[in-house]
Amino acid sequence: xxxxxxxxxxxxxxxxxxxxxxxxxxxxxxxxxxxxxxxxxxxxxxxxxxxxxxxxxxxxxxxxxxxxxxxxxxxxxxxxxxxxxxxxxxxxxxxxxxxxxxxxxxxxxxxxxxxxxxxxxxxxxxxxxxxxxxxxxxxxxxxxxxxxxxxxxxxxxxxxxxxxxxxxxxxxx
Length: 173
What we know:
By secondary structure, the protein is mainly beta.
């Protein structure tokens, strides 16, 4: 029996606006999901086992390059963290629970599914200055690289994927 692999799925880049002026910002929405073994095993009993072995922070690093052809237009790096902690919250029937840090804000999920969604479903708004794009008509796509380190429950992992292409038309004044 082969072990399930981790993967990046549904990598979608969507153009939010198309500026009429060359000084307006171009906005894109990037969404993707991390699926596979890590998502399947990521549950409360794993959090408790990891916490008991002093492995209480799981960090995912996301690198995104917006590209047109082979030219990198914009790069962004951000991190999501899951922190396992001892809780005394009467609404949570477990001793060890989790909070997720995304965009520098902590989120306290009320269920395992909500925790998986907060950690493994990624949505990011990316804004570009049109001046970095040299052609009036360009196709832009996102190269995504995601990684995490070794933990009691997983080996170091690197995942890569590419989004769809979004065509943009600029009006230079």
